[in-house]
Design a protein that fits this description.
Order of helices and strands: HEEEHHHHEEEHEHEHHHHHHHH
Number of helices: 15
Distance between the termini: 68 Å
Radius of gyration: 28 Å
Strand order of the largest sheet: 6-5-4-7-8
Number of strands: 8
Largest sheet: 5 strands, mixed
Structural class: alpha/beta
Shape: elongated
Length: 374
């Protein structure tokens, strides 16, 4: 068998001599065979693996294979299949049924599945504590969404704070995922302070929704960064304050503002919106004014990037993928499991973050930003 042959070759290299060979470079000796059963893609496989003892000065030690490590019971392909099935939305019980044709008669207990999934936690912890000093983040998208998790025997909705950065080459990079008690100033400030403590430099632009706690946290953490209010969130706010029979008109008038050809045309459309709706729907106009000039920030950036920068849709789509993957599970078993799943979906490539539109113009943005800062 190929696995046995590979292990024998590995042992030959470790000992420096074939069986019964006598030479001055021998580093140990063989001492029998150990029977092992390894679960692979075709089911359980019986293996006869060599044992050996290595010379180690005054004492000898047992040789261990790196191809089939001690205590390993499954090939990496099986563990990968367990993880992939979990990330596709299966819980630990469903995984065993889904992989039964692959495992044949080999056992795969619930606890074994849990141990495999737990290996993802190491990757999450490394990601959450990694240095961000080498990241050249130009834009950041910040938003929160709710996730259903099981806590103290009850299924509750827990807010997740998400931060996605755009690097100088246009690629998006997941910077933070944090479960918290709510989208308060303290929660967002703690999230951003952690990013700064790990070396994240201030971005040129922050794209946010209208959460006041988030706006304050961004202002205190990165006071010199420009801020763009999400136009999609603002339109939703306007629609909630308007009667149903005028929703289409309000939507069209608002689109004339955010889809204008330039900043001057946008401000003219903004003034027209105020004139049209000030008396008919004063609450709508008050909500529009609350966004202020931060609804127009994206006009100061290259036109090729306007579509990407005028809203938090970048992170909204990420949230949508998260929800779609966890929908089959109803609720996640714990907060740790939630973060592990969300992070692993991105880290494994099952959720892809593509470059932003107009990424080739980022160099011009950096050049302009540097000259203004100087």
């Amino acid at each position: 068998m190929a696995i046995e042959a590979a292990v024998h070759e590995e042992l030959l290299a470790a000992l420096g001599a074939t069986p019964y060979e006598r030479n001055g470079s021998r580093r140990g000796y063989r001492n029998g065979i150990r029977e092992r059963t390894l679960t692979g893609p075709t089911g359980p496989v019986a293996l006869a693996l060599p044992r050996a003892t290595l010379f180690g000065g005054a004492s000898a030690k047992e040789w261990t294979s790196t191809i089939v490590p001690r205590y390993q019971r499954r090939m990496p392909e099986v563990n990968a299949a367990v993880v992939a099935t979990y990330l596709a939305g299966g819980n630990t019980r469903r995984i065993r049924g889904a992989l039964q044709p692959l495992l044949k008669a080999a056992p795969l207990s619930k606890s074994a599945v849990s141990r495999v999934i737990a290996t993802l936690k190491d990757g999450l912890e490394a990601w959450r504590t990694r240095s961000l000093t080498d990241l050249d983040v130009i834009y950041v998208y910040l938003d929160g969404f709710a996730l259903r998790v099981r806590s103290a025997g009850k299924v509750v909705s827990v807010p997740v704070l998400g931060v996605v950065g755009v690097l100088s080459d246009g690629h998006k990079h997941l910077l933070a995922l944090e479960l918290c008690g709510g989208e308060s100033f303290a929660a967002w400030k703690g999230c951003l302070d952690d990013l700064v403590a790990r070396g994240l430099r201030a971005p040129v632009l922050s794209i946010i929704d209208g959460n006041p706690g988030l706006r304050r946290a961004v202002g205190e953490t990165w006071p010199r960064a420009a801020v763009q209010r999400c136009c999609v969130h603002k339109l939703r706010n306007l629609e909630r304050k308007a009667p149903k029979h005028v929703l289409a008109e309000i939507r069209d008038d608002f689109h004339r503002v955010v889809y204008a050809a330039n900043a001057d045309a946008a401000r003219a459309a903004y003034a027209a919106f105020e004139r049209t709706w000030a008396k008919r729907c004063p609450g709508v106009v008050t909500s529009l004014r609350e966004g202020g000039n931060e609804l127009f920030t994206f006009f100061t950036f290259p036109k090729a990037q306007w579509k990407t920068l005028r809203s938090t849709n970048v992170i909204e789509r990420l949230h949508g993928e998260f929800r779609r993957r966890v929908k089959t599970q109803g609720s996640l078993p714990s907060e740790d499991a939630a973060l592990i799943l969300l992070f692993s979906l991105v880290a494994s490539g099952q959720i892809k973050l593509r470059r932003i539109d107009g990424w080739r113009r980022i160099a011009a943005v950096l050049s302009q930003h540097t000259s203004v800062a100087a």
